[in-house]
Write the structure tokens for this entry.
Amino acid sequence: MEGEEDMNIPPRIAIGIIILFHIVGLAGLLLPATQPLFLQIVPIHLLLMLGVIVFSHHKLSSSFGIFILLIFWLGFLAEWIGVHKGWLFGSYAYDTTLGVKLSGIPLMIGINWFLLIYATGVAMQRSRLKSPFFRVITGAAVLVLLDLLIEPIAIKFDYWHWNSPAIPLKNYICWFLVSMVMLYIFEQFRFKKQSIAAPVLLVTEFVFFGLLNLVVILL
């Protein structure tokens, strides 16, 4: 079709890159000698995952590019509202680990939202759930579960900090609602059934942050 290119990374290679770099990242963050370096390259890791996911998408097209930009800026806007207005998530601010900021919001956070929404959207697409409504609701719930694992690690490694003694319940409610909106948008684009690489990224994120919690937070 006009406006589309087939530049796919084979799923096996994409999955190998995803798993390998998460294993390396996990080891690097757990070793005291290498932890400072690996915290500095968190943005590079996110950019690498972006490249792997984009180029494992079946048929690169203008509509996929629009989807990426839409989710990037929606995620960025949600975080801007959260940080500067406090209407979403709670009272928090970003630290240095996620890199370059625009108006106090790391640009990488938009990329992170895209990766999470796309990976979850494809996972739901490949599930047995036939109803778009249940795919959106289930996907949003999955992302809240992932955020439960991300939050303690993000605080410890200076991704962001909360201006309150505990992570507010509002954070998880808003994560659910914002994820619902973005997953609904994913459904509207009606992408052809996509590579297993994206769901593997989602599962790998659960394992990655789960193990970090186990080792760094609990031990």
